UniProtKB/TrEMBL annotation:
Function of the molecule: Catalyzes the reversible cyclization of carbamoyl aspartate to dihydroorotate.
Family in the record: Belongs to the metallo-dependent hydrolases superfamily. DHOase family. Class I DHOase subfamily.
UniProt name for this protein: Dihydroorotase
Annotated residues for binding of substrate: H58, L59, R60, N90, N277, H308, F322, G323
Cofactor note: Binds 2 Zn(2+) ions per subunit.
Provenance organism: Desertihabitans brevis
C-alpha cells in the first residue's frame, strides 16, 4: 500500500534547524523533488521529532479486549506521538512461545497504527519457575529482542542469571520489573512511609526495588549481558544505576511519566486510579528521577500504559487492579516536568523518547534522524499547546487516567508512521 506523498513545510528539527520534509514511499525524500500537486502540511512554528517509541505498553490483546486491543492501544499511541510500542507479555495467553509472539506481531501488522514489537516472557506463564522459549522467540518471524515478566519480578537469582546468559547470543535484553516479593509482598500497594501507615495500606518499601536492581546489575556484569530496568521509581535505584554505569555495566533504565509528576499524596483520597505498581513515591524520589532522566542515568521514558476495565478498578484501594493509562499524555507530562522546568531541551526529549528506546529494543526503523532516505516516522509538536485532561476524551478503551482535570501541555499535532498520517488534530 502506498500513500500519496506529503510535503511538510516550515517545521524545525529538535536542534532548532528549519527543515522541509517530503514523505514519499514510506521514507523521507528530497523536498526539491516534490510533485507540483503534492499534499502540503503547513508546520510553521512546529517542531518535528522522530516518532516516539514506547518500551512499555500493555495492549491487553489477546485476552482482555474489553480493556484494550492492538487497534485501540496503537490509536492511543499515535495520538500520543508514538510510531512504535513494545507490547508487554502479560496477556492471556502469556507471550511465552514463538507462536504467541508471532500472533501479537500479526495483530500489529493487521490492526496497528504503529509498529507493534512483542515482548517475550522470561519465564513460562510468568510463573518465575522455568525459562520460556527465549531462543525460539528471538529466531521467530517476530524477532523478539526484549524479554520481561513485567507485572512480576524474576526474583530467583539463578533463573535471572540463566536468562541473562541466554539472551546474550542474540543481543537480547532482560527488562526487569524490580520488586523483591519478600520485601514488597502481596498486599503492598502504597509507598511504605508515613502515608501508608496513616491510610492503613500495605507498604511497598523503596528498597524492595533497589536491592533487586543492585543484584541484577552484578549479574549483568558477570554475564556480559544487557539488563533493562522497567519503571524506576526510587532515588536508591538511581544511585545503583549511577554506580553500575560508572563501572561500564550494560544496564539501561526507563522512568514513567506518572513517576515524574505524581507523588504519594495522590493516594490519600483512596482513589484507585492512583494505584500503580511500582507505587507513586514522595517528592524526594520524584526530584531524583527527574535529575536522572536529565543527566542520562535513566535512558528513556516508558509509559507503562496499563489500561483496566472499570470493573477492575472500581474497588476499595487495596482490591483494585494496579495501573494507569499513559500513552496519550506522556509527551505532555514530559514537557511539563522536564522541558518547562528547564531540565531538558526538546532535543533531549527526542533522545529519551525515541532514539534511546529504539536502540534498547533493537528497532532499526525507529528513532532515526529525520533525513533523506530514512523511514518517515515523525511527530509534529506544538510546544505551547495546552489542554485540561479529560479521561473520557481518549482513543483507548480504558479511562483510568490519573491526570483527569489537570491542565497539561498537549503538544502532539500530527503523527506520521511509514510516511502516512496516523493521527492529525
Ligand atoms: N504497572 C501496573 O501497575 N500494572 C501493570 C503491570 C506492571 O507494569 O507491573 C499491568 O499490567 O496492569
Ligand atoms: Zn511492571
Ligand atoms: Zn507494565
Amino acid at each position: 500500500m502506498t500513500h500519496p506523498p506529503v510535503l511538510i513545510t516550515g517545521a524545525r528539527l529538535p536542534d532548532g534547524q528549519p527543515r522541509d520534509l517530503l514523505l514519499e514511499g514510506g521514507r523521507f525524500a528530497d523536498p526539491a523533488s516534490a510533485p507540483a500537486d503534492v499534499r502540503r502540511v503547513d508546520a510553521d512554528g512546529l517542531l518535528a521529532l522522530p516518532g516516539l517509541v514506547d518500551l512499555h505498553t500493555h495492549l491487553r490483546e489477546p485476552g482482555r479486549e474489553d480493556a484494550e486491543t492492538v487497534r485501540t492501544g496503537t490509536l492511543a499511541a499515535a495520538r500520543g506521538g508514538y510510531t512504535a510500542v513494545l507490547a508487554m507479555a502479560n496477556t492471556s495467553p502469556v507471550t511465552d512461545t514463538a507462536e504467541a509472539a508471532e500472533h501479537v506481531a500479526a495483530l500489529g501488522r493487521r490492526d496497528g497504527c504503529a509498529q507493534v514489537a512483542p515482548v517475550g516472557a522470561v519465564t513460562k506463564g510468568l510463573a518465575g519457575e522455568e525459562l520460556a522459549e527465549l531462543g525460539l522467540m528471538a529466531r521467530s518471524a517476530a524477532g523478539v529482542r526484549v524479554f520481561s515478566d513485567d507485572g512480576h519480578c524474576v526474583h530467583d537469582s539463578r533463573l535471572m542469571r540463566r536468562a541473562l546468559e541466554y539472551v546474550r547470543a542474540f543481543d537480547g535484553v532482560i527488562a526487569q520489573h524490580a520488586q523483591d516479593p519478600r520485601l514488597a509482598g502481596p498486599d503492598a500497594c502504597c509507598h511504605e512511609g508515613e502515608i501508608s501507615g496513616r491510610l492503613g495500606l500495605g507498604g511497598w518499601p523503596a528498597v524492595a526495588e533497589s536491592t533487586i536492581v543492585a543484584r541484577d546489575v552484578q549479574l549483568a556484569r558477570l554475564t556480559g549481558s544487557r539488563l533493562h530496568v522497567c519503571h524506576v521509581s526510587t532515588a536508591e535505584t538511581v544511585e545503583v544505576l549511577r554506580w553500575a554505569k560508572g563501572l561500564g555495566i550494560a544496564v539501561t533504565a526507563e522512568v514513567t511519566p506518572h513517576h515524574l509528576l505524581l507523588t504519594t499524596d495522590a493516594v490519600t483520597g483512596y482513589d484507585p486510579t492512583f494505584k500503580v505498581n511500582p507505587p507513586l513515591r514522595p517528592d524526594e524520589h520524584v526530584t531524583a528521577l527527574r535529575q536522572a532522566l536529565a543527566d542520562g542515568t535513566i535512558d528513556a521514558v516508558g509509559t507503562d500504559h496499563a489500561p483496566h476495565a472499570r470493573h477492575d478498578k472500581e474497588h476499595a484501594f487495596a482490591d483494585a487492579a494496579f495501573g494507569m493509562v499513559g500513552l496519550e499524555t506522556a509527551l505532555g507530562v514530559v514537557a511539563a516536568t522536564m522541558v518547562e522546568t528547564g531540565l531538558m531541551a526538546w532535543e533531549d526529549v527526542a533522545v529519551r523518547m525515541s532514539t534511546s528506546p529504539a536502540r534498547i529494543a533493537g528497532l532499526t526503523d525507529q528513532g532515526r534522524p529525520l533525513a533523506v532516505g530514512e523511514p518517515a516516522n515523525l511527530v509534529l509538536v506544538d510546544p505551547s499547546r495546552r489542554t485540561r485532561v479529560d479521561a473520557a476524551d481518549t482513543l483507548s478503551l480504558s479511562r483510568n487516567n490519573p491526570y483527569h482535570g489537570l491542565e497539561l501541555p498537549d503538544p502532539v499535532v500530527a503523527t506520521f508512521w511509514q510516511g502516512r498520517p496516523t493521527f492529525t488534530r
